[in-house]
Amino acid sequence: MNVLWVFAHPEPRSLNGALRDHGTATLRRHGHRVRHSDLYAMRWNPVAGPGDVAHDPREPLRLGPATEHAAATGALAPDIRAEHAKLAWADTLILQFPLWWHGMPAILKGWFDRVFVQGYAFGVHDEQGRARRYGDGGLAGHRALVVTTAGARATGLGPRGVHGDAEDVLFPLLHGTLFYSGMDVLPPLVITGADRAGPAERADAAARLDDRLTALPAAAPIPYRPELGGGYDDDLVLRADLAPGRTDLAVHRT
């Protein structure tokens, strides 16, 4: 595989940094190729705006259409085009970050804001003019794995935990971003108790990461329902006969 590893942690000597280095070595030992986007080391600019496109400041900025036109004409900012080149090379995306305030760090959110632009990751259509999203899209054919650490205990991120189930917490990223843009999304690897991890816990985390990376080429993705698979009506509401009476996020799985 060609793997793009996007890393969003400010300290390379952290548990996250150790796992990134360990995982990279594991992938290469199995014959895979790895490239990195270390966002803090790159001093990635997370703020989308007129600097991303060749925008005439005398005109109002409509960022979506402007980035779509710039992507089509090669006029996107060089740092965005560099990330697009990495994604074009990769067939697998690994996203690694600490879970802050039930979400990703701002620098990684800004990577998505600037890189997953209209006409590239979303806003694409099929021959019938239908939107390609939720199971199809600009990044169809890619696999994605989220690796995240949390200070919380595993029980607190379980099905009845006070923080919410880990996959529900990550649903906006897993389903609303990665699956939306067409990727096959693998179950996330969530390393809990990261703030208190000693040598034994670090070794366990590395072993869990090894297991996931070894299985990465053939691992089954989360079975989300595709938008055009017949499960949703014209208002994009799940059909009443599917998961009747339920409203939890798992209804969007087959």
Automatic annotation (TrEMBL):
- SUPFAM superfamilies registered for this protein in UniProt: Flavoproteins
Quote any Pfam family the record assigns. Flavodoxin_2
User: What organism does this protein naturally occur in?
Assistant: Actinomadura verrucosospora
GO molecular function terms attached to this record: NAD(P)H dehydrogenase (quinone) activity
Q: Which residues form the signal peptide?
A: none
Q: Name one GO cellular component term.
A: cytosol
Q: Which UniProt keywords apply?
A: Oxidoreductase
All residue ranges annotated as the Flavodoxin-like fold domain in the record = 1-211
Concerning its family, UniProt says:
Belongs to the NAD(P)H dehydrogenase (quinone) family.
Protein name in UniProt = NAD(P)H dehydrogenase (Quinone)
Give a yes or no for keyword tRNA processing in this entry. Answer: no
